[in-house]
Request: fold
Amino acid sequence: MAGSLKKPDTAMPPSIGGARPLARRDFQVACIYYPGFHPTPFMESWHGFGWSEWDIAQRSQPRFPGHRQPILPAWGPFNEADPSWSSREIDAAADHGIDTWVFDWYWYCGVEVWNEALDRGFLQAPNRGRMKFGLMWANHTWQNNHPASLTDALASLLPIRHSMEDLDRVVDLWEERYFRQANYWRIDGKPWCSFFLLGSLMDHLGGPAETGRAVERMRRRAQANGEPGLILGVFTGSAAEARTARELGFDHVTTYNLVHGRNQQAGQATVDFDDVALAHMDRWEEFRQTGIPYWPVVTQGWDVSARVHPYEPWPPKRWNWPWGHVVTGNTPERFGSLVRACRRFLSLQGQKDKVMLLNAWNEWTEGSVLLPTRDQGDAMLRELAAALAD
Reply:
């Protein structure tokens, strides 16, 4: 079938290819929400009043024949911190089968960035009850890739730091501002939240033993605030790191995005989505073999060239992020095929709570978008809804 995965019955691992799709009622669909498309004071202090990542998205240029850039919304650039726009997004997501948005959340020892999309947009939208939401603490140092310099190394704008005392502050803030919301995402009655980087946490806290104590401390803090506990996750692409996370007391792991192909070579400038899809199935199966609760990720694509200077030569001369390959051929039909493959994988999992994670709702500057676009309209959302239908 045109647009589907190549040789779907033989290219998949036999365990996945032979499985029946899990019934829709038996799993949840969560989707990454990147809140970078509205003004926020810290970024304005660097880039000017009214600046948001729409600026670099709109200035992106095609780097090779057929390159799908710029990737822009069919709605036109909009302010996601405006409740009226958030309301429109909520309807689009809920109407096409998404249950929960996982908001990237940015906190730097009290300095907050990009929180307005959640606080002023989503939480003030009149139809917010149609969607659940959860927080993924994107605990990485923020670098200036707006866009990245043509010649210079990436400048650090906000360094990440962790301490036991700061974790207390975070859990208290989560409780006061988010956990008390009626549509906060809970699993077994406990609020869910996650870290992006386990390594950052371990480095700053002093190693595995202190990190394990921090995980327990966060749960006790939540209980002191009246919660039955916390469901804590970690984002990782490594089965070895997943084992470490479980040993430290985290409840589950997942993967933010998976963008390399099964057969990709070093320095390969473009990678076809079929190859990326096959790599997904390999990774899902690898995690399943560990026995660790894992939420499989399904990518819509990958292209961070918008974060690189528009006059950067192609192919890239550097291969450290955000310089790198572009995923091509990520058509709506191929995306839908990968969603269907993930439903088969979910039926093989023994864990109680099953979640499919989608990347992403609105990563406009990283080439992974489910919202309607100028060139494809709402085809991605329609394929998602069809793939999720029983």
